[in-house]
Amino acid sequence: MIQVKDLHKSFGGFKAVQGASIEIETGSITGLIGPNGAGKSTLFNVIAGVLPPTSGTVLMDGEDITGLPPHELFKKGLLRTFQLAHEFSSLTVRENLMMVPDMQAGETLWNTWFRRGRIREQEREIRKKADEVLEFLTISHVADEKAGNLSGGQKKLLELGRTMMVDAKIVFLDEVGAGVNRTLLGTIGDAIIRLNKERGYTFCVIEHDMDFIGRICDPVIVMAAGQVLAKGSAAHIMQNEDVIEAYLGTGLKNKVTAGGTA
Fold it and tell me: What CATH number does domain 2-87+158-257 carry, 1.20.120.450, 3.30.1850.10, 3.40.50.300, 3.40.720.10?
């Protein structure tokens, strides 16, 4: 689905991404791991149109989408979430979801004057879909809660719910486990797996929690110093000497060598 070819992104003299080439296959849950500063989020931002590349190409289903702005990619079904959730804190959880679909009838002055029936009908349809999303994510009990009052994990589920309001094709998830307790992280993982298997979503996931990556992701891509270091199954990655040295650390390397687990 996504092909990134020889991508470079520099900020002045700093090269955040240096010749990265990756493929994300349709129907996969691809993990993207690496140490802080490896270039993972920058790569995400370039693919998602948040940042322009210095050079290189991004293709989606064979179409060149390099440099397209996020709203254009949104219409194509490519969405990106962020490490820090971007909810509308003063709106309810349900209202946050209902804000997502574009081209709503109530957005035009003409319709507010002359097509109020159509606006009400569409709002009922969107509300129904929002409630279905909340039930799918097992957070119906906070539907009327202000989004700003949610826990970190609930906010991550809300972000995931937003992608469901537009039937996304591919979703880039940036550190879904950051600030999330283990129980809710398990719920998030369950939701990602279900969306993948039941609704055909493709995911690319940045995450530092290797247990989480190992549970849901195949394959796993490793970045270090702005470059792709390795790609393979989570089990293969955990045994890769270069990855252990560059990312997982010598402490884990000793455990792996001794036959332990991380």
Answer: 3.40.50.300
